[in-house]
TrEMBL record, chains A, B:
UniProt key word DNA-binding: yes
Cited Gene3D superfamilies: 1.10.1660.10
Molecular functions per Gene Ontology: DNA binding; DNA-binding transcription factor activity
Key words of the record: DNA-binding
Species this protein is from: Orlajensenia leifsoniae
Signal peptide: none
Record's protein name: MerR family transcriptional regulator
Amino acid sequence: MRISQLVEESGVPLATVKYYLREGLLPPGTATTATQADYSEQHLHRLRVIRALTGAAGLPVQRARAVLALIDAPDGDLFESLGRAVAALPPYAGVDPDGDYPRARAVIERLGQLFDPQYAAVAQLEHALKAAEDAGLPISDERIEAYGRHLHAIAEFDLGQMPSAAAASDAAAGSAAIEYAVLGTALYEPVILAMRRLAHQDVAAGILEGGHD
Amino acid sequence: MRISQLVEESGVPLATVKYYLREGLLPPGTATTATQADYSEQHLHRLRVIRALTGAAGLPVQRARAVLALIDAPDGDLFESLGRAVAALPPYAGVDPDGDYPRARAVIERLGQLFDPQYAAVAQLEHALKAAEDAGLPISDERIEAYGRHLHAIAEFDLGQMPSAAAASDAAAGSAAIEYAVLGTALYEPVILAMRRLAHQDVAAGILEGGHD
């Protein structure tokens, strides 16, 4: 398709498409004449991914480029590529590999999961636990266990939907898995938070009789 | 206690404490001399709440004031006060009471919950569902059901921990419930997201054999 059609089908303005081409986020089309190029369904797909990363996920262009590089060429260790790709998403808590994350460590060990301070989410968890503690609402063991059980079940569902997770040695499957992990994390987190707030309202309506009609 | 002690115990700088006093977020102390006032444990507690709202929860001062007003004087309908308080938290999707939220409505009805477009989280959910759809990762019914089941269980746990939810007619209990709902939403959401990401890593490590040592 021509670039005008790419613009039309994606809904991304021409100036933005050209910017992505210049920045190397979107690969060039196949030149058909000196001034025209042909774009494929892959370009359309890539545009959607870029929009999700820089829009909904809120990534700066530099970080989006790093994620796209991992999608395009996952290295041999898919587990590590997945971790690096998801770590490019906000919030940026700042990982200190030698860091001591006492609150996060206690939670992770209580859940029977592996504590590895190189996981970006460890610093993220430490930061969140400390903020709750500072506000006088530290997370109880009971809450950790309740949250942990249900979030683990959600994670199992998520991974079960990961494209071709089993064929991890295949590069194309690796790319699809990384793309799914990044977009699924960025796009489904807001869904999860909204659904929890709505569930609160549903439960509260049941408890506070007369408080709702 | 003197204001200097309030500063020391809370860790909030003097200039900030004075700013909160000027802005009416922190009620004045009891004057002991023309230039000195006495502050109580309640002030210390209130300072922690203000810090959580304006810091971790990221509220602008105006919105923090609105939440504090609800905590101080919940109106007769606790359910509505809870909803208004939580709606003051980001993200701000912009509620349109006459709005048509087709994606959110379908999800809420599928979960058997009440669809009320006045709930702020409805617009939030619609926005999140649309972003996922635009990126080519629409949420399947199966995913909605899996997420919905576990998030409802988390919400039941959360509400079960709400202080004196049963004594909702009592104003002090109402205040405590609103404070818990707002702070619990703002402070535990980041914990939930970090825990889900860690659960992903745990599940992925199990699936991708050899990908993790």
